[in-house]
Structures
1.
Amino acid sequence: MTGLKLVCISSLPAAYPAKHEGRHRNCWLENPSAETPCFFDASWLGEVCTRQDSYGYEEREGHFSPCFVMRLEQTGDWRPRFTEHIPKAIADHYDPGFSPVHCYAKEDRGQDLSSNITIYPPKGFSHLFFPVSKFNPESYLLPMVAVKLHRIPKGSNLTVECSVVTPNAFFLWNNGKVVLRFEAV
């Protein structure tokens, strides 16, 4: 299926090279080509999700701070479109060269915990990684976005919904959305 998928965090180091190689380009400095797609440095996500803190799934001082990673998979010829209507929650980080990811979290008791969310990179998915079909599949690295929930109280049950903000998200599986349920017990 095409679309936004959750990724097993512990498998990331094996799937992504630790260093920029000749078969990838640093797209902060130059545009990709068919043979040399953008390099995605998985260590960038280490600022949000780390093995050292059990990815936030261990209780600390009565709270949890879990994180998860998402990527856009099997998108083929799909290319994100420019977004005109940006949700206020992500307007500060908006860059037209990116498709932002917007997440919100709500406790079963109705409390909105969206302000307890960090998304990294904050701009979302760079458009330079799309369309996937134009790149050599042997060297293409799927871009990722990490989401961290901060200080979720023990005993909380919450639902988190994240979506890619682009007018053509309807071409993606589940309209470019993922929904997760956390039980902080």
2.
Amino acid sequence: MCVLDAAAKEAAVARFLREYPQIEQAECDHPALVGCADAAWSKAPGCPAGIPVLLRGLLDQAAGPEALRVLGNVLMDSVFHASAAMSTALPFLIRLAAVPDIAMRPGLVDLLVVAAELSQPVDADNERQVLLLGNDCDHPEREWCRAAFAAHASALRALLEDEPPPDGLISADDRECLLKAVELQGDLSGIVQARACEARATISQ
């Protein structure tokens, strides 16, 4: 997974559309993507307008691998940070990952695990974590992703129940990571981080 700036993300989506024009032109009424076209993509800073097309591309046998690769790149701002669009994409990624006959399911699960890992709160007292990941108050996308995981907890838990380890699609470690993402919303650590951000803002005034 490489990291792209906003212009490079737009260019990557444009290349995908040129290579697979049928995806943009095709009608899509798949239940997993209901509401995708109407989601507030434009409100996310640096979010390419073509993300809904990439999500539709995941359903196409030929375009699926490239759609997943481009989507994974545009939903990241760096190796350690999800983009502002990740939380908007999560409901659709969760629903798509639950569809048994989608060839891209393993890659979708991997993307969900990355989002879950990067949405975990950062301990403001851990200098190494703060250096690598930044403070939570500077990265609201973490809280947004936790809220998205929590809002779709039932769908995510159903996916985990359908794919038990060790022979299922989801490994024991990935399962634990996804469950933790669901349970983090409302956790005391979030309150601690919020207070740390408030204190930091007060000091800077």
